[in-house]
């Protein structure tokens, strides 16, 4: 059994094509080549913990992942993310590797999934990106988006001035021209690619401010209690996509919109089917598209396997 430290993991990640890895994971999931167990979660005072597990049919490994988010941690000088991934052999159940990633692989695979959603659903020429949030995921999403869009104009929404200033500095280092604001409606109205990355429990902006032709990727709402989008935005969407329809029945923006009666499940497409061409994505420039990414264990399988195989040489 191999132990992989966070420093080892960080060292090899740049050698991986993370966007392609995540696209392949979504296709495998939608083609029923992934076996994924129901999410186990602990909703604690100040944080949440998720346990996700699964395997790919015909693959060598299965994965069990623990990931947590404690959103008051930055005030304590700690990361809001933590966790690890365990990689077992399918044939024997032996533990092949423990990846002590401290939640980093979950952050990276989520950000790469956001880039996949933008690659397949965003307008061909993005004029301005809007990011809601200033934390780890907000930064990682921006880093991954650089590989799928040439746009470097950015509007950022956050709750605190200091957090916005810090985020703007990091975004500028990535090559973005940045405007910051605490006005969510104005930020959403300014962009044609919106990414939401917060642990919010109510909508961040009104559905009405989203302009025709805009794509929205929501990644923050990964429990039944969280919500970033107005259900009416999902009702407005011409293209509505889930990473997992089964999982989005129970959590995320689609779950909230279904509960509100704003949408019908039959309107929802799965991202893997859009990637493979089995389902249509954006077909005209003026369409609004929304992708609800709640995080699927197929992503964890692919990133854990790939990191382990590179480290093993």
Task: Report on this structure.
This protein has about 325 residues and is of the alpha/beta class. It has two domains: about 1-105 and about 300-310, ornithine cyclodeaminase, domain 1, CATH 3.30.1780; about 120-295, NAD(P)-binding Rossmann-like Domain (Rossmann fold), CATH 3.40.50.720. About 35% of the residues lie in helices and about 25% in strands. The chain has helices spanning about 5-10, 20-30, 105-120, 135-145, 160-175, 185-190, 230-235, 245-250, 250-260, 270-275, 295-310; strands spanning about 1-5, 35, 40-45, 45-55, 60-70, 80-90, 95-100, 130, 155, 175-180, 195, 215-220, 240, 270, 290. The strands form two sheets. The chain has an eight-stranded parallel beta sheet, sandwiched between helices. Strands 1, 2, 3, 4, 5, 6 and 7 form a seven-stranded mixed beta sheet that branches. It is globular, with a radius of gyration of 18 Å. It starts with a strand and ends with a helix. The mean pLDDT is about 95.
């Amino acid at each position: 059994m191999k132990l992989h430290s966070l420093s080892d993991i960080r060292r090899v990640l740049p050698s991986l094509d993370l966007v392609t890895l995540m696209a392949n994971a979504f296709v495998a999931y939608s083609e029923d080549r992934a076996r994924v167990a129901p999410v186990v979660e602990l909703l604690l005072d100040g944080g949440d913990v998720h346990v996700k597990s699964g395997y790919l049919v015909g693959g060598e490994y299965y994965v069990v992942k623990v990931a947590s988010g404690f959103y008051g941690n930055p005030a304590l000088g700690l990361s809001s993310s933590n966790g690890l991934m365990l990689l077992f052999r399918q044939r024997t159940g032996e533990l092949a590797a423990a990846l002590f990633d401290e939640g980093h692989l979950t952050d990276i695979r989520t950000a790469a999934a956001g880039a996949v959603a933008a690659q397949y659903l965003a307008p061909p020429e993005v004029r301005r990106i809007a990011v809601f949030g200033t934390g780890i995921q907000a930064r990682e999403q921006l880093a991954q988006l650089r590989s799928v869009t040439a746009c470097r104009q950015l509007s950022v929404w956050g709750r605190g001035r200091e957090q916005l200033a810090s985020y703007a500095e990091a975004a500028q280092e990535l090559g973005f021209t940045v405007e910051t604001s605490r006005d969510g409606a104005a930020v959403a109205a300014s962009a044609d690619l919106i990414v939401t990355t917060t642990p919010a429990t109510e909508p961040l902006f009104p559905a009405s401010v989203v302009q025709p032709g805009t794509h929205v990727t929501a990644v923050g709402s990964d429990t039944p209690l969280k919500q970033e989008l107005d259900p009416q935005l999902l009702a407005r969407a011409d293209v509505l996509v889930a990473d997992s329809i089964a999982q989005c029945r129970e959590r995320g923006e689609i779950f909230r919109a279904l509960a509100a009666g704003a949408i019908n499940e039959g309107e929802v497409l799965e991202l893997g089917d859009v990637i493979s061409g089995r389902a249509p994505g954006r077909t005209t420039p003026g369409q609004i598209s929304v992708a609800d990414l709640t995080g699927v264990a197929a992503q964890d399988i692919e990133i854990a396997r790939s990191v382990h195989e590179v480290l093993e040489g």
